[in-house]
Amino acid sequence: MRKQIVTPEELAPPKGFNHGLTVENGELLFLAGQDASGPDGDIVAPGDLVSQFEQVMANLAAVVEEAGGSSADIVKLNVFVADRDAYRDNLEEIGEIFADYVEEYPAMALFEVSGFFKEDALIEMEGFAVIDPAGPDDDHDPGAL
């Protein structure tokens, strides 16, 4: 499977996301919205956006792994937050957590919303992954995605 980042010259260079990605020869996985629910179904770390972000990433990774891929296969994420300013204020910590899950940022969008299904949720993410039907690529070329 081959992924290629798309960065048009006429757009500002992306930081913390990519404008687009093309993918060849993979299977598309639609990722349902994941909040910071732990195994018991309750929101972890009420009031702590960074800890909830980490749980959301773990939840997304679990779905992709169950489908035969890894979190590095995520190519598009929509991020929904209760407080956009809190997200921006924690970008450094969020970026560090993100780096534990993805090799390159996916195409992303951020939305501030008025509320979530679960009252204690501060963040939810949904998106797409493209999984190599042949399995993980052990011969990963660092020059390509």
Provide a quick synopsis of the model.
This protein is 24% helix and 28% strand. It has one domain (2-129): RutC-like (60s Ribosomal Protein L30, Chain: A), CATH 3.30.1330. It has 3 helices and 6 strands; from the N terminus they run E-E-E-H-E-H-H-E-E.
Description:
- The protein is α+β, with helices and mostly antiparallel strands.
- The chain has one domain: 2-Layer Sandwich (60s Ribosomal Protein L30, Chain: A).
- It contains 3 helices and 6 strands; from the N terminus they run βββαβααββ.
- The protein has helices spanning 49-66, 84-89, 91-101; strands at 2-6, 20-24, 27-34, 74-81, 107-112, 123-131.
- The radius of gyration is 15 Å and the shape is globular.
- Mean pLDDT is 88; it is low at 138-145.
Architecture (CATH level 2) name: 2-Layer Sandwich
State the secondary-structure class.
alpha+beta
Average pLDDT, rounded to a whole number, is 88
Identify low-pLDDT runs: 138-145
The CATH superfamily title? RutC-like
Biggest pleated-sheet summary: 4 strands, mixed
C-alpha termini separation: 9 Å
